[in-house]
Amino acid sequence: MNIEDFRDYCLGLPGAVEDTPFGPETLVFKVGGKLFALTDIDTFASVNLKCDPARAVELREAFDFVQPGFHMNKKHWNTVLIGTGATDAQLRVWTADSYQLVAASLPKAAQLELAQAAEG
């Protein structure tokens, strides 16, 4: 997967927006104002994704290319190394999981708006 495909996938999720709050080199994807993915725009060497803490440990133990979140809370974030074994399908699933975790933490009204946006 390349940065353009990843960007398109993230922005295709209901209510997802992109931002660069940490500087022009770090592309951040948010839902409801909360982060669900971030990556380096220039290199796209890795992606930080939110993850259920128990699942985060499982993924790190199962895959060498999944590591504790770089510069993030390592209990809740994983860094997925791109080009080292992660398939496009895995990256999409883990990104969707990250998005869902964050969306589920939003206030009920925001969750309802997202559900309506997903319906079309």
Walkthrough of the structure:
There is one protein chain. The chain has 120 residues and is α+β, with helices and mostly antiparallel strands. The protein has a single domain (3-119), classed as Aspartate Aminotransferase, domain 1. It is 40% helix and 25% strand. It contains 4 helices and 6 strands. It has helices spanning 3-11, 53-62, 88-104, 108-119, and strands spanning 16-19, 26-31, 34-40, 46-50, 66-68, 77-81. The chain has a 6-stranded antiparallel beta sheet with strand order 1-2-3-4-6-5. β3 and β4 form a beta hairpin. The longest helix has 17 residues, at 88-104. The two termini are 27 Å apart.
Strands, helices and their partners?
Elements: H1 3-11, E1 16-19, E2 26-31, E3 34-40, E4 46-50, H2 53-62, E5 66-68, E6 77-81, H3 88-104, H4 108-119
Question: Which key features would you list for this structure?
Answer:
single chain; 120 residues; alpha+beta; Aspartate Aminotransferase, domain 1; six-stranded antiparallel β-sheet; 4 helices; 25% strand
